[in-house]
Amino acid sequence: MRRMPVVACALLLAALGAGCATGSTTETQQADTSAPATISYWSTGGDDETAIFQKAADLYRKSHPNVTIKVQTLSWDDAYAKLLAASTARSGPDIISGGMTWTIQFGAKGGMVDLRKYGVDTTLKAQALPAQWDSAISPDGTVYGVPLDMSTVAIYYRTDLFEKAGITSFPKTWDELTAAMDKLKASGVKQPFSMDWGNLDWIGYFNFLYQAGGTFYTPDCKPSLNTPAAERALAYWVDLYQKYGAPTDTVAAGNALATGTAMVSGGNWVAKGIDLDFPDLKGKWAMAPLPAGPAGPTTFVGGRAIGVTSYSKHAEQSADFIKFMYTDEAIATMVAEGKNRNLPYIPPRPDLIPSSTFTPEQSAVFAESIRTGVSAPGCPGWDESAPDVSKQLQSAILGKADTKTALAEAAKIMERNAG
Amino acid sequence: MRDRLRRNLTSYVMLVPFLGLFLGFLVWPLANSLYLSFTDFNGVNVPEFTGLQNFRRLLFEDDRFRHALMNTFVYVIAAVGLGTLFSLALALAFSGSSWPHRIMRTIFFLPSVTSSIALMLLWKWIFNPGDFGLANTVIGRLGLDTVEWLANPSLTIPILVLMSVWGGMGYGMILYVAGLNSIPHEYYEAARIDGATTWNQFRYITLPMLRPVTTYVVVTGLITAFQVFEAVYIVFRGTNNIGGVLDSGLMIVPYLYDQGFTHFKLGYASAVAWVLFLIIFVLSLVNLRLGRAVKEL
C-alpha cells in the first residue's frame, strides 16, 4: 500500500513524458493560395507602429482582394514570451516582427519559414542596407527574417552651450570630442557628455569598438574582442565615464539636455520628442553623426526584423506581403501615416531615408550615420553572450577591473557560448 | 466499499469541478515542470531527456546562478529580518482602538493593497537619476551631490530591501496587532504585581505569546522574499540584462525568467524553479520545526 504514491508518481511522470513527446515540428499543411485568406501579423512595438503597418496591409489588399491582413500590437515587454508560447503551441500569427535577431532564434528552433523558398532574398537583398541584412539572416545564410525598419544613433547637442564654450563646429573625431569636452567643462558645463541608448551596455561600446577598428567577431564568427583596438575603444569609453563624468544611470536624452548636459548620444527616436517635450529647448539644440575614431566613422544600426512563422497556413501570401513592405508605394504610405502620428520611422531601404518621417536636416544626419552603419553580430552564441559581455564592460567602467582583464573575460564568455 | 461510495457519491460529484481545476491548473503544470527540468526543452522542439544534467550544471558550473543565489540569501535575510522587526514595532506603536491608531494602521497597510507594479514604478521615479528623482531632489536640498541610485551596485540590495520592508510591514503589522490583542490582559496585570518591568513584560509575555504570529510572518515573508521578481524586473532591468548593473540585483526568479523567456532554456529554467522550491520548502520546514522546538522548551 505504501508503494502506491511512488507508483502513482512514476505513472504520472511516464504519462507526462509521453504527453510532452507528442509535440512535433512537422511541415504545416498550406491553404489554397487562390482562396480568401486572413493573415494575422503580430507587430512588436507601439500602437502607432501597428497603425502604419496596417496602412500598408490595407494598401496591399487593394491589389490582393483575397488577402486580409490584421496587424496586432505586442508590447516589447512580453512579446518574446508570447511569440515563444505561440511557437510552442504552433498556433498564432502568420507574420511576426520584433528584435533584429529574434527571427534567427525562432528559426533555429523550427518556428520560422526560410523566406528564400519564396524568393524574398532575391527581391529584397539588393534594396536593404548590407550590414543590416547580414545581421538579420542566419550565419548559414537561411533567411528567417528581413529588416523591417532601421534605428540608429546620433549626437544631440546644445548649440547655446557650445557657442558659450567657443566651439564653432561639432567635433568630427575622438580627439576633437575630448577637446570639446574640456572646453565645455572650462566654460562651466557640469555634464559635457551623457549616453541615452546603450549606456553601460554593449550597444554603447559597439560604436567605439568599430570606430577603433575592432569587431566583436571575425567574418567567420570567431570571437575577436581580445585585441588592442578593442582595448583602445574601451579605454576611451571608460574615460567618458571616469574622467568626464558621463552618468552611469541613464538619463533620457531630452531630460539631460534640458538640465544642462551639453551632448547626449541617443537613438533616432529622440529627435521626435525634444521640441515637443521641452519647448524651452527650441532652437537651442542640433544633431550630428558620432565622431569618427582612429579607424574612421562607424555607427550602430539596429531595427526590427519581420518573418513568417512555420505554422502559418498562408506562408506564400505572407512572404509576398513582406516583399510588398519594401515597395515605394508601401513605404510612402507608412511614412505619410508615420508623419501624422509623429512616429520615428526609418524605412529599411537606405535610398529612401531622405523621405523618412524626420525633418530633412535630421534625415540627412541619420543617412550619414547609416552610411557608415554596422549592425549587431548575428554569430552563434552572441545573444547568449551579450548580457555577460555588458557586465564585463560595466566592471571596467565602474573600476572593478582594468580594460584588458574585462575584455579577456568577455572574450572567454563569447568563446564558451560560440560552442 | 460500494455502500460507502454510494453514501458519499454526492460529495465526490460536488468535488469534481474543484478537483478538475486543481489537477489541470496546479498538479499538471507542476508535474510538467518537474518533467521538463530533466530535459533540454527550448520552447519549440520536442524535449529530449537529459537526466540530471540541468541540475548538475546549475549547482556546480553556473556562476550566474550562484551569484543570484547569494544575492537572494542576502536579500531574504535582510528583508525578512527587518520586515518582521518593523511590523512588530508598528504593531506595538499602533495596536490601540483610538482613531489616530486606526488611521496610522490604514496608512501603513495601504501599500499591501496597492498594485505592486504601480509601487515599483513609483520607486523607479523616486530613484530617477540626475535632478529628476525625489531622492536626489531631497538630498540636493540638503546640499549633497546627486547619487546614481540604480546604477550603483552597492546600493542595489539595500534599495530592494527598503522597497520590500516599506511594502510589506503594514501587512505584518496587522497580523501582529491581531496577535497582541489576543494576549489576555491578566498576564500583564499579574506580571506588574510581581514587579516586572515593561521590558520584562515584553520579553517574557508578549514575545512568547506572539510566537505563532511570528512564525507565520517569517514563513510567508521568506516565501515572498525568495520569489522577488517585480522589484528587480521593473526597477533594475537594463536594456540587455535583467539583474541590473553587474547583476547586483539578480535574484533566483528573475534569473529563472531570464533563462526561460529570454534564452528559451525552458528545461533549465524548470530546474531553477525546482531548486527554488526545495530551498523554500527546507527553510519553511526548519522554521516550523524551530518554532515547535522552542515552544516545547
**Net shape of chain B:** globular
Kindly state the number of beta strands of chain A: 11
Low-confidence stretches of chain B: none
Distance between the first and last residues' Cα of chain B: 45 Å
As for the number of domains of chain A, it is 2
User: Given the structure, what is the number of helices of chain B?
Assistant: 13
Chain-averaged pLDDT of chain B: 91
Query: Taking Cα atoms only, what radius of gyration of chain A do you get, to the nearest Å?
Result: 24 Å
Average of the residue pLDDT scores of chain A:
90
Q: What characteristic shape of chain A results from the CA principal axes?
A: globular
Largest interface: A-B, 44 and 38 residues
Query: How helical, in percent, are the residues of chain A?
Result: 40-55%
Number of helices of chain A: 17
Q: Which sequence of SSEs, written as H and E, runs from N to C of chain B?
A: HHHHHHHHHHHHH
Give a description of the structure.
Chain B: Keywords: Cell membrane, Membrane, Transmembrane, Transmembrane helix, Transport. Chain B: It is found in: Cell membrane. Chain B: It holds the Pfam family BPD_transp_1. The complex is a heterodimer of chains A (419) and B (297). Chain A is α/β, with parallel strands linked by helices. Chain A folds into two domains: 160 residues, D-Maltodextrin-Binding Protein, domain 2, CATH 3.40.190; 193 residues, D-Maltodextrin-Binding Protein, domain 2 (3-Layer(aba) Sandwich), CATH 3.40.190. In chain A, 46% of the residues lie in helices and 13% in strands. Chain A contains 17 helices and eleven strands. In chain A, helix 9 packs across helix 10. The N terminus of chain A is likely disordered. Chain B has a single domain, classed as Orthogonal Bundle (MetI-like fold), CATH 1.10.3720. In chain B, helix 4 packs across helix 7. The radius of gyration of chain B is 24 Å and the shape is globular. The relative contact order of chain B is 0.13. At the A-B interface, helix 1, helix 3 and helix 16 of A face helix 1 and helix 12 of B.
